[in-house]
Design a protein that fits this description.
Immunoglobulin-like; 2 domains; Beta-barrel_TonB_sf; CarboxyPept-like_regulatory; receptor; mainly beta; cell outer membrane; single chain; 4 helices; Maltoporin, Chain A; five-stranded mixed β-sheet; TonB-dependent receptor
Length: 795
């Protein structure tokens, strides 16, 4: 009944939101700056300035004139005019009235007669022209949904998101066979390794990002991390304007999400912004179990084999985050100089261990975050240009993990007293995770088409804590690690037709801990520093105007993360300080073809192939006796993969597309360690890695629905994952399989108001209530509904 009410409320709001809005008319003329003659058939494109969304495109008539009728209000637009033999013009314009007339005078540029014209490209288009195998998604059309960033990334070709539950659950990325910590996550080029879980992919609202870039395999040195399987860079919006965005949503499982963002830039260059959001959910969705522990009145218990549908009863989650930034922009000494502060709080109940075989009813964790941030950027007029940037943050985090219940729970929510406290292990553990991250980048442009770049990324970790229930010698000795990854690259671009980059990287890792190397009680100070070299190259060639070929190679390394080395802090994931770094030879080949590239129609096809050969592969495993997780080196692994993506768009009114990925990731460790006995896992698929999956989507934009000036967006998504095993499965045991999964989502968004400032959205995810799982058979939510209300203002 509640689901029906949500749909009715949404339908009523659509009809009540009737506000009359007039269209904006943009007319103009394009001429030769010298002769003043009209330029016929010059290409004219209009995009919104705020989010770079395509609005329309056309060409001038025989008189050099063009005309656009903008259906909706756009505070600022970017107009790009290009014509072969002339320098491309790009103008940012703020329509002040219903009618505007613009003049464009183009200057001749004889060099472009024999070149591919790349001037006037948007930042997203510049990224796509790189020599690296990169996919990206613009978030403008998704900001009105209740999606978080993990949902958005999950739709990109070659990517799967593994989550352990509902709102606030841990999200791990699988990218072309590599998962978890093999794939590095960045925000504006700064690693997210040390950030609080309150600022994780499953918590960050999609509105925080302007776009998401996914690098598959070889990663540019500018991102500066030790990524082995690829990297994801979340790019925030750095436009100079005054705006306010506010939204609230509510939905199934008592889920509530709120986000407020405001920023202002004065004429004198003072900048201030505030981004605050909160998430709350009971996460009490139903899950399916095939057995449970029955508690008898005499104090005994027994395992009962029975297929049941039960509701999660101990999975509440809420977090609150606020990010304040102040500084100056567009000064002689700095393009951007910002000081930021992020504060956050998180409360999370723990329903189960790393698998659903172990259920809890009282465990919980809390976390507090205080993280100062610094951003500096400047473009100097030295030679052909010198760009310098510095980004850094330091997290003063405090966490608390509690496991004090003197009873055990089953999936029915029943409890049975036990003689000692602690469902997994008795603990009242208070600990501090102090994490730092800094990235310095410098790019010098000595001549046209040439650049030299230097990047250095520092990440630090320090954990100290105390368990009130017991003393351990390690409490007096903080566990610490420090990583420095430095890269140097040279890039050459030949007239926009071909460009190539060569780079070298140096990795340094320092580790300090107080432990027994044999895992016993003979504790001692442990310190180790290692360093490694890597490098590679990437090249791309533009075959005509519509086809881009890419080829790249890298010898890459990945250093173990602080969590793999020291554990999660709540005893569910334990550390392994003996882990070795992974190393890999990576080869990537890809092609992008604009098979149809007309004014109103565009068909884009992307195909890619990847080859990886990894040594000392780090794999996450689970303990069947306790449900705990840990990481271990698994010898040699070979990975072959391919991606295919197709997308068709018609103006800005309709799009349809899909992507498909196939991964063949197998163990090449032939013998059992220390013997000549052949391993039963030799040439078997690496477990817990989906090997065949894909996505499909379609969208329709209708304008002037019910009232002139309104916009109705309808967006459908489909997700597919082929059956795979979550443990080594040489004997094809069906109990170790995660079944094939299909899910369908539908999003409807209605935009209205005098300046299109109001938004109402309704959505239904997992429409047919399919059983969905993560890589270790942790069941995810079933069918869910949500409604979102939004307001935006910009000038």
């Amino acid at each position: 009944m509640n689901q029906v009410k949500m749909v009715l409320i949404f339908a009523i709001l659509l009809f009540l939101s009737c506000v009359n809005v007039s269209a904006q008319v943009i007319k103009g003329r394009v001429t030769d700056s010298t002769t003043n003659e009209a330029l016929s058939y010059a290409a004219v494109e209009i995009r919104s300035f705020e989010d770079d969304v395509y609005i329309g495109g056309s060409s001038t008539n025989e008189k050099g004139e063009f005309e656009f009728h903008l259906k909706g209000r756009y505070p600022k637009i970017r107009i790009t005019v290009s014509f072969l033999g002339y320098k491309t013009i790009q103008k940012v314009y703020a329509p002040a009235t219903e009618y505007s007339y613009l003049k464009f005078e183009m200057q001749e540029d004889s060099q472009t007669l024999n070149e591919v014209v790349v001037k006037g490209l948007s930042p997203a288009e510049k990224v796509q022209r790189l020599a690296y195998n990169v996919s990206l998604v613009e978030t403008a059309k998704l900001k009105s949904t209740t999606m978080d960033l993990s949902n958005v990334i999950d739709k990109i070709s070659g990517v799967k998101i593994r989550s352990t539950g509902g709102v606030g659950s841990e999200a791990n990325v699988t990218l072309n066979g590599f998962s978890g910590r093999h794939v590095k996550i960045f925000i504006d080029g700064v690693p997210m390794d040390g950030m609080s879980s309150a600022f994780g992919l499953n918590n960050i609202p999609v509105g925080l990002a302007k776009r998401v870039e996914v690098y598959k395999g070889v990663v540019p040195i500018e991102l500066g991390g030790d990524a082995l399987g690829g990297a994801i860079n979340i790019v925030t919006d750095n436009s100079r304007c005054t705006r306010v965005n506010a939204s609230y949503s509510f939905g199934s499982f008592n889920t509530h999400k709120t986000n407020v963002y405001a920023e202002h830039t004065t004429k004198k260059g003072f900048y201030v912004s505030l981004n605050a959001y909160q998430n709350y959910s009971d996460n009490d969705y139903k899950v399916n179990i095939d057995s449970y522990t029955k508690f008898n009145e005499d104090g005994s218990n027994q395992e009962v084999k029975e297929n049941l549908t039960v509701r999660r009863f101990h999975a509440k989650y809420h977090n609150e985050v606020a990010i304040l930034k102040i500084g100056i922009v567009d000064k002689t000494f700095a393009d951007r100089l910002l000081l930021g502060f992020m504060g956050g709080y998180e409360y999370k109940q723990t329903q189960n261990a790393s698998t659903m075989d172990w259920v809890y009813g009282a465990r919980y964790t809390t976390a507090n975050t205080l993280m100062p941030q610094l951003t500096y950027e400047k473009r100097f007029k030295v030679l052909k240009g010198l760009h310098v940037s510095l980004n850094g943050n330091y997290n003063f985090g405090k966490s608390y993990s509690a496991d004090t219940a003197s009873c055990n729970y089953n999936w029915l929510g029943q409890s049975q007293p036990k003689g000692v406290p602690g469902e997994l292990s008795y603990m009242k553990y208070r600990y501090r995770d102090h994490n730092g991250a800094a990235n310095f980048r410098m790019a010098l442009f000595p001549a046209d088409g040439q650049s030299v770049s230097l990047s250095s990324t520092l990440t630090t970790f320090s954990r100290s804590g105390k368990d009130e229930t017991a003393y351990k010698p390690t409490y007096e000795h903080p566990s610490q690690s420090m990583k420095i990854v430095t890269g140097l690259s040279y890039k050459y671009d030949y007239k926009g037709k071909w460009n190539t980059s060569a780079f070298v990287k140096h990795y340094m890792n320092h580790l300090e801990a107080y432990l027994d190397p044999e895992g016993g009680i003979n504790y001692q100070d442990f310190s180790n520093t290692t360093s490694y070299w890597g490098g590679g190259w990437a090249s791309t060639y533009f075959w005509g105007r519509h086809t881009q070929l890419r080829l790249s190679y890298e010898y890459a390394l990945r250093l173990p993360t602080s969590r793999e080395l020291f554990g999660s802090g709540d005893d569910i994931e334990r550390g392994n300080s003996n882990l070795k770094p992974e190393s890999s030879n990576n080869v990537n080949i890809s092609v992008t073809a604009n098979a149809v590239d007309l004014t109103d129609h565009r068909l884009t096809i992307d195909a890619a192939f990847q080859y990886r050969e990894i040594k000392d592969y780090i794999r996450r495993t689970t303990n069947n006796d306790s449900g705990r997780a840990s990481s271990q080196n698994d010898g040699r692994v070979r990975n072959l993969g391919t991606d295919l993506s197709i997308r068709y768009t018609f103006k800005d009114a309709f799009f349809v597309g899909g992507n498909f990925s196939y991964i063949d990731m197998r163990s090449l460790t032939r013998y059992v360690t220390g013997t000549q006995q052949e391993s039963k896992n030799y040439k078997e698929r690496v477990p817990a890695i989906p090997y065949m999956y894909g996505n499909g989507e379609a969208g329709l934009t209708l304008r002037d629905v019910f009232v002139k000036g309104t916009v109705l967006d309808i967006h459908y998504m489909m997700n597919y994952v082929q059956k795979f095993s979550y443990e080594w499965n040489v004997y094809q045991n069906a109990e170790l399989d995660i079944p094939t999964q299909f899910s369908h989502d539908l999003f409807v968004n209605y935009n209205f108001g005098k300046k299109s400032e109001f938004t109402v959205s309704a959505e239904c995810t997992n429409i047919f209530n399919a059983r969905l799982y993560d890589n270790f058979k942790m069941q995810k939510p079933g069918r869910a509904f949500a409604i979102k209300f939004g307001y935006s203002f910009m000038k």
